[in-house]
Model the fold of this input.
Amino acid sequence: NLAQIRRTAQQQNATLVSYSRPRGADRLYIWVVQPTGDIAFESVALASELTLAVENEAGNIELQRQPSAEARLQDLVTIARQSLGVRGDRLATGIVELTPEALARQQAETEANLRQLYDLLIAPIADLLPTDPEQPVVFMPQEELFLVPFAALKAPSGSYLIENHTILTAPSIQVFGLANEAAATAGANGRSPSATDNALIVGNPTMPTITFLSEGGSFQDVRLTPLPGAQREAEAISSFLQTPALLGSEATKAAVQQRMAGASVIHLATHGLLEYGDPRETGTRDLPGAIALAPSGGDNGLLTAADILQMNLRADLAVLSACDTGRGRITGDGVIGLSRAFVAAGVPSIIVSLWAVDDDATADLMVTFYDHWQQSGDKAQALRQAMLTTMEQHPDPRLWSAFTLIGSPN
Done:
């Protein structure tokens, strides 16, 4: 109810932004709950045409309006992600390499499309967002908006949203409130908000074989591709935290589950399987989402959302540094997948990726994140600082904006 919503914003000193588009409506509704408890509402018209960044005959990028039978948010989000050059394929292992000329064109398209999303999602409420960049802004997207890299949305001034705001996401205001309650309970029980002394680090397990629906319409067994970049990431974090990592054949489902129960931090650098659980995609009916681990003892090597929901975890943070772990089955109630399973299992904060992440940039970003988190105890601020630092070395937004923090900032 309204009293609980206001109390959540006040207790967390956070600005809550909730998006909604009723089915079939041509408007986007935005509610903003400020830390004072004040609630504002904006209604934004969705254009009947799409504005696309395209290459003209002279080789320059220009904006062109093209008619669309239904200019859906999904179209805008898809176009922006495509212009970033990211892939959501379940077997993707990284970023597509481009020639310098193609990269320049893609960057121009990316900037135009990220500005278009900013104009739609942020500009109508920009004056309601905090001026203090350290005060958290929590976005509650709906449906396709869960795939938006909010950190990379670009203002007319040329600045990215992450440069001016500390950003989190949550499936709903209720889930955000529950995550903060879990964090507060952990603190009351004496757990340090930045404890990494008992971290579980997993990288590039020996990959299992998964059944997928082929393009020809038949189910076939496919062995997932190894992720050497994920192993380098795990090794870098292991060295920084001075904690051994589980790699290759050691990273079995049984070993990971056993270690997860008592881990203070769970870092999983492997494939995320969002289609698992959908009989139309994998022939298996289950809760959506699974993490690929090494098979052993007759199991298939998949740590599923259903497995996670049955666990009672004490970790302050779970990092799902895998391909598209922030994605899942999209419903009116949010992303029902791996991120929600970890919240339900008691983990107050989860960092997930929105696309197949780049190896080197991700390793740099994650080590910087853990460094800042150990110093500040604030996960949201640590992720923001890690993005800003990574941006200096890897300015392309596809290399630093893939991750989002779901749940509690502390």
Q: What stands out?
A: Residues 88-95 have pLDDT under 50 and may be disordered. The chain is about 35% helix and 25% strand. The radius of gyration is 21 Å. The longest strand covers residues 27-33.
